[in-house]
Amino acid sequence: DARVTQTPRHKVTEMGQEVTMRCQPILGHNTVFWYRQTMMQGLELLAYFRNRAPLDDSGMPKDRFSAEMPDATLATLKIQPSEPRDSAVYFCASGLPEFMNTEAFFGQGTRLTVV
Amino acid sequence: ILNVEQSPQSLHVQEGDSTNFTCSFPSSNFYALHWYRWETAKSPEALFVMTLNGDEKKKGRISATLNTKEGYSYLYIKGSQPEDSATYLCAPAFSNYQLIWGAGTKLIIKP
């Protein structure tokens, strides 16, 4: 069945290391969102793409975070260098072109722990 | 900065009782209102997407209404069950392609 797939599900890394999280959106969905869940901020939008082009990445710390869509089947979120405060669950979601008034489908999330 | 408020922040309800909570948002440039249900250790799942003033949508025991002129939506749960325990998120979408998420209402159903 169609679902958003995120890898890895869990990642533990040391401070300073590079972390790459991957997302495979549902086939046919051209809108992809990256969210971060933290205790303090709830669900925080980091970036979103439409037709592989970044529409809004204002929620993302630019100095260490980067988000890309190399092709329509893969979105990546990279942190370099990682810091303990980046520890959170990172969700990817995908939606139809009419994402404003149709539902988004979320992946299972990547739980990142930076020690 | 667009402000989306959900109230209450958390809610304890006795099993079998009905309940409701609110999402408030700026009415200007409004496009659509999304409601999601988020269970602990899972990912958010869509409940409703509403666009028109006066819209009312229903899914089983859960329903939602929308007032776009005054900028609010209510979510109702009739006859709460333990499986309704979750955080309920609203996310209004605006015509400048912004989708802003509320902090959620955490609902706990007491058996």
What does this structure look like?
The complex is a heterodimer of chains A (115) and B (111). Chain A is mainly beta and 115 residues long. Chain A is built from no helices and eleven strands. In chain A, a hairpin with a 3-residue loop joins strand 4 and strand 5. Chain A is globular. Chain B is mostly beta strands. Chain B has no helices and ten strands. The radius of gyration of chain B is 13 Å and the shape is globular. At the A-B interface, strand 5 and strand 10 of A face strand 4 and strand 5 of B.
Secondary structure category of chain B: mainly beta
Share in helix of chain A: under 10%
Ranges of chain B where pLDDT stays below 50 over 5 or more residues in a row are none
- The amount of beta strand of chain B, in percent, is over 45%
Shape of chain A: globular
Whole-number mean pLDDT of chain A: 91
C-alpha end-to-end distance of chain A: 36 Å
- Rg of chain A, rounded, reads 13 Å
**What is the average per-residue confidence, as pLDDT of chain B, rounded to a whole number?**
94
Q: Could you name the ranges of chain A where pLDDT drops below 50 across 5 or more consecutive residues?
A: none
